[in-house]
Specification:
241 residues; mainly alpha; Arp2/3 complex 21 kDa subunit ARPC3; two-stranded antiparallel sheet; 7 helices; 3% strand
């Protein structure tokens, strides 16, 4: 009887066609954290056009939401790793830039004769590009610093006390964010001394202190968010993950 050769079974994980990505599972909680981070970024940028009062001083209302993004970034870092956290930060910067460009186009588009709020829409939501650029630069630089400090803490200090790793990384990154934004958006910088948004350095310092106080307070309240998911095994986590 003639023998029939049987092909070796193909492992289930092997791709059947070239170019296909291997199947992977992302926790639903991680997806929710990414969505919350992106949503908080957009909400804080839009609401920052409203200037309110805190401690008797002027403060943009996006300040009450934006500090939460630092803790949400830490949650994403814990669940998905440093590379994913970096990607999230940079991706949201492009989302914010696209939002500003789209709002500018919408604000300049002719209004229908039945829509009587075209001028008001342009005044409120038309982007101020100095603010936009300052905000995006501050966000990217500070959130990437937050990423590195958080990773350093869990790899070099301790994996215990999750609240401490968040508190330390936020304590470094929030002042950086605040200083960059206040300086770039309102400081008397070269080529911007005559800009309408330029303020005396005493006023810039006042903005820095008020916003820093609010951001630290909101950041402290957001610390428990780090416990919404189990911690990862950092001992088996490569430095470039």
């Amino acid at each position: 009887m003639q023998s029939v050769e049987q092909a070796a079974p193909v492992p289930p994980s092997a791709p059947t066609r070239r170019g296909l990505l291997p199947a992977s599972t992302v926790p639903r909680l991680a997806v929710a954290a990414v969505a919350a981070y992106a949503g908080a970024q957009v909400i804080s940028d839009i609401t920052s056009v409203k200037i309110g009062v805190a401690f008797g001083r002027a403060v943009d209302m996006g300040t009450w939401i934006y500090p939460i993004t630092f803790t949400l970034r830490d949650v994403v870092h814990k669940m998905l790793g440093r590379r994913a956290a970096r990607t999230l930060v940079v991706s949201c910067a492009f989302v914010n830039l696209f939002m500003a460009l789209y709002l500018q186009w919408v604000a300049r588009a002719p209004s229908h004769e039945t829509y009587l709020l075209g001028d008001e829409f342009k005044q409120v939501l038309g982007p101020l590009w100095r603010i936009v650029v300052a905000s995006i630069i501050a966000e990217v630089v500070s959130e990437l610093i937050d990423t590195e400090v958080y990773h350093w803490f869990v790899r070099r200090v301790t994996t215990q006390y999750q609240w401490a790793r968040v508190a330390v990384s936020n304590a470094v990154s929030i002042p950086v964010d605040n200083a960059l934004f206040a300086t770039l958006a309102f400081g008397s910088l070269p080529f911007l001394t005559d800009d309408a948004l330029t303020l005396p350095w005493s006023a810039v310092w006042d903005i820095f202190l008020v916003n820093l106080t609010v951001k630290f307070a909101v950041s402290a309240l957001s610390l428990p968010l780090i416990y919404i998911s189990p911690d990862r095994d950092w001992s088996h986590d490569p430095d470039d993950a």
